[in-house]
Amino acid sequence: MAKKYSRELAELGSAGGDALNNAGRILADAARLAARYSRDEIAPRARSEYAEHLAPLLATGLAAGRRYLRNTPLPVVKKKSGLGSFIAAGFAIALVAGVAYVAWQTLRTDDEAWVDDETDVD
Q1: How far is CA 85 from the centre of its chain?
Q2: pTM to 2 decimals?
Q3: Distance CA 88, CA 115 (A)
Q4: How would you write the chain as a 3-class SS string?
Q5: Cα(49)–Cα(58) distance, rounded to whole angstroms?
Q6: Residue 120 — φ and ψ, nearest 5°?
């Protein structure tokens, strides 16, 4: 590379480095300002809104749900075992066996699978 081009490239690199340093400083200042604004303005407002509006609403909803569950008897349903449940159980067993076989084939060592390094290639 000619000296002229290498000198220009070096100047461009130093200018680029200065720009990156400035950008880094700007980003750090912006992050610091955003954190301070969040801590001073947003977090207190969010806490007060939660305490004034959301917490009472959640408490009311939970109390109503508990009252409903306490007053509603839950029906007891006898589960029948049919042909579908046996077929599903068979598929599940076959699936587990297939996964176990694939894992065993993947993780086993096969001494015959290695190629000898001393082959003569011309």
Answers
A1: 35
A2: 0.40
A3: 44
A4: CCHHHHHHHHHHHHHHHHHHHHHHHHHHHHHHHHHHHHHHHHHHHHHHHHHHHHHHHHHHHHHHHHHHHHHCCCCCCCCCCCHHHHHHHHHHHHHHHHHHHHHHHHHCCCHHHCCCCCCCCC
A5: 13
A6: -95, 115
Phi, psi of 43 (to 5 degrees): -60, -45
Q: List pLDDT tens digits, range 23-41.
A: 888 889 999 999 999 899 9
Q: Which amino acid is at 106?
A: T
CA angle 117, 121, 122 (to 5 degrees): 160
- Rounded Cα distance between 54 and 35, Å, is 25
Q: b vs e for 1-21, b when ≥16 Cβ sit within 10 Å of the residue's Cβ?
A: eeeeeeeeeeeeeeeeeeeee
C-alpha to C-alpha distance for 9 and 16, rounded to whole angstroms: 10
For 36-60, what is each residue's pLDDT tens digit? Answer: 998 999 899 989 988 998 899 889 9
Q: How far apart are the first and last CA of the chain?
A: 40
Amino acid of residue 98: G
